[in-house]
From TrEMBL:
<feature type="active site">
    <location>
        <position position="87"/>
    </location>
</feature>
<dbReference type="InterPro" id="IPR016036">
    <property type="entry name" value="Malonyl_transacylase_ACP-bd"/>
</dbReference>
<feature type="domain" description="Malonyl-CoA:ACP transacylase (MAT)">
    <location>
        <begin position="7"/>
        <end position="306"/>
    </location>
</feature>
<dbReference type="InterPro" id="IPR014043">
    <property type="entry name" value="Acyl_transferase_dom"/>
</dbReference>
<dbReference type="GO" id="GO:0004314">
    <property type="term" value="F:[acyl-carrier-protein] S-malonyltransferase activity"/>
</dbReference>
<comment type="similarity">
    <text>Belongs to the fabD family.</text>
</comment>
<dbReference type="GO" id="GO:0005829">
    <property type="term" value="C:cytosol"/>
</dbReference>
<dbReference type="GO" id="GO:0006633">
    <property type="term" value="P:fatty acid biosynthetic process"/>
</dbReference>
<dbReference type="InterPro" id="IPR050858">
    <property type="entry name" value="Mal-CoA-ACP_Trans/PKS_FabD"/>
</dbReference>
<feature type="active site">
    <location>
        <position position="195"/>
    </location>
</feature>
<dbReference type="InterPro" id="IPR001227">
    <property type="entry name" value="Ac_transferase_dom_sf"/>
</dbReference>
<dbReference type="InterPro" id="IPR016035">
    <property type="entry name" value="Acyl_Trfase/lysoPLipase"/>
</dbReference>
<dbReference type="Pfam" id="PF00698">
    <property type="entry name" value="Acyl_transf_1"/>
</dbReference>
<protein>
    <recommendedName>
        <fullName>Malonyl CoA-acyl carrier protein transacylase</fullName>
        <ecNumber>2.3.1.39</ecNumber>
    </recommendedName>
</protein>
<dbReference type="InterPro" id="IPR017554">
    <property type="entry name" value="Malonate_deCOase_MdcHsu"/>
</dbReference>
<dbReference type="InterPro" id="IPR024925">
    <property type="entry name" value="Malonyl_CoA-ACP_transAc"/>
</dbReference>
<keyword id="KW-0012">Acyltransferase</keyword>
Amino acid sequence: MLRTALLFPGQGSQRPGMLAALPDHPAVHAARDEASAVLGRDWRALDDADALSRTDGAQLALTIAGVAAARALIAEGAPIDVVAGHSVGAFPAAVVAGALSFADALGLVALRGRLMAESHPLGFGMTAIIGLREAAVARLVEQAGGAGPVYLANRNAELQIVVSGAEAALVRVAELALGAGARKAERLNVRTPSHCPLVAPVAERLAEAMRDVRLSAPTIAYVSARRARVLRTAEAIGDDLATNVAEPVRWRDTARLLGELGVELAFETPAGSTLGDLTAETLPQVRTCALDQVSLRSACVLSRAPRG
């Protein structure tokens, strides 16, 4: 039974000051210092609104925050049985699982963010449709296709489906969705049409870069949110990291898998509680906890508490 999961959010959950607000812990200081050395710039340069508004800055900050918070939690003795990351969150998940070095993760994420930003600098993005099921949103995407390229992207929860594509098409899908009874059509803080064929060239470049990276079999169970499966080999995890940018995130199915694995408690690394909320929506019996909303001591006590 894999009782405790660590969840790593994707782009859109970042917020200014998230790195400075991490716990005052030696593992956090070490992770931020290592990131500064690898990137050749102070981590504080990634922690303001301007940096976090850019794809590369946001993804790097989330990677640093995820690894730093996880290392502090583990250093304090919290047992972590399984990790899962949403989109770019797969990279810090792979680091914590022991499959990828932190330095290599930072290099790959920097490349990923830069390629994504360059691939579609203007006029594209992602919109979350809340309140309609996947089949209904798929029909709306088909109807809106004449306004520009648009695709079903992330299946975050039963009633939260994200679409990705060109601005005019996103606007049209939102109009159709609200007319069909959706509670909300929310434009995400993401400038790139991620998790669809529009960014397939980014995945190809990442696959090339991955050939020069040393990967290891995970020592903590690694769940792919792209496949909603536990990946057990270095090769499978490398493929997952390279290709997830251009394929849908299946978080709804990933949450179900966590339940099947026996997860009873899920911690989410900074910033916020997005994944915890989505997981709880699918698995109300799983207790979720945002690490930036509790102390490390409280989190460790919670992780050791009897459950079941």
